[in-house]
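Tutorial, part two.
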Amino acid sequence: MTDLQGWRRRFEPQLRRVFHVYWRFARGMTLGVRGVVLDADNRVFLVKHSYVHGWYLPGGGVEVGETFLESLRRELVEEGRIELTGEPVLHGVFLNQHVSRRDHVAVYVVRHFRQDRLPEPNHEIVATGFFDASALPDETTPGTRLRIAEVLEGKPPIATWR
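Running the prediction step on this input gives:
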């Protein structure tokens, strides 16, 4: 391993956290996208990041010039090796005040996809998996739990991420 690789492996998680906090306060309005990816048994796909605590729905920021669906497609491939094979359904758009008073997240329900295998852990995503809604990991975030309950239990959507 080169010195640069060693430095990167050692300090990248800390740098990601610093930039995450910086962007939280410095950016204008931000748009994100997340997917409630459900397999044939209605188990939901979750990811665990290296730079924030907890389990989340896969997704991320919408880049300049990118549509919500383009961003969703990109993020699902990057975080879960998930390729859409059908059209996702928009569940809702939510204000995510935990990130910023200017952050909005579009959530899609994904039932038609292909995944050749679970991804290997990497510098951004340290763990992934499909989980039954009644047996989510303890560290699943409240907002993630809320979106899953809305989709699977038919609970009315709440406008904020919580």
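The two ends are 42 Å apart (CA to CA). In part three we will examine how such features are distributed along the chain.
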